[in-house]
Amino acid sequence: MLMRGGTSKGAYFLAGDLPADPAARDALLLRVMGSPDERQIDGLGGAHPLTSKVAVVSPSADPRADVDYLFLQVAVDKPEVSDRQNCGNILAGIGPFAVERGLVPAGEERTSVRIRMVNSGDHATATFPTPGGRVDYTGDAEIPGVPGTAAPVVIEFPAGAGRLLPTGNVRDEIDGVPVTCVDNGMPTVLIAASSLKVTGYESPKDLEEDVALADRLREIRLAAGRLMGLGDVADTTVPKLTLLTPPRAGGAVTTRTFIPVRCHTSIGVLGAASVAAGLRIEGGVGAELAQLPAEGDRVRIEHPTGFLDLESSLGTGSDGLPSARRTAVVRTARKIFDGTVFPRSTETAPIPAATPGGPR
Prior knowledge:
By secondary structure, this protein is of the alpha+beta class. The chain has 2 domains: 2-158, Diaminopimelate Epimerase, Chain A, domain 1; 172-320, Roll (Diaminopimelate Epimerase, Chain A, domain 1). The chain has 6 helices and 16 strands. Strands 1-2-3-4-6-7-8-16 form an 8-stranded mixed β-barrel. Strand 1 and strand 2 form a beta hairpin. InterPro entries: OMA_tautomer-like, PrpF-like.
């Protein structure tokens, strides 16, 4: 099933419909998506990381979850498939897909699906309308970056077991640049745009064409990966790097996020959850730039094509450091088509590179 989830698009599969061997599975998915090819002209991929994604869904053995969701990022121009990160946008389609495929029975009005994100072991609950026991994708919820409106999918994340501040510090310094390393579902490095000699209001295209900026970001990401306990991240897409600057449209902050080289045309859900939490950390890089509301948990994150609203609140962990207490977001999803995909012949398919790392 091809679905739009949030501001991404991907192919959703039942795990039982794919090879059990990860190498064989990844080789098949490369052929399905049309990689490696910068246009992905011979497959389902849309020639951009945001449209070259895969969800693998199965019943969960975890008593806290109904289904397991494995996210796979299929590289566009390289024969690589990575399981090193979650995707909160594709997550928006997991509940509806689970109901469509009969993994979870639909309620008469609304259905909640408990999801275990295999990549990280984190959990989320997605709630969406199912009038008459059928998924309804129509509605009046609007999210920037997606034309029109659709039914709301409310995704709530419980407080994670991991540390919100993976380095144990509110602020670190990498190559002379102050950063705050946060993980509220997505390992993310918060950086003031001004510290890298950019405004943070540039278009994604202009930022991507800044060679000097790309070099600085690469060095910061590699160093941050080690500080955050992720090891060598040279061949992975985490941690994300998010440049912060004061808001211009009534939100809390303006962002530009790198994944890891391409500049996101919006912002990922889990990345935004990490940003929202980071803005509330006293002494952090984001706190001095953000304009947070005087009351309530609502945080509006501005991005290149609009904004993303989240509910985010913090508490204090047993180590005395800030910890995430609650995170929720409203997204939308839509079924685009349901059918059979015919992958490229194995005779012309390249051998995939090994999937970097395993589920963490």
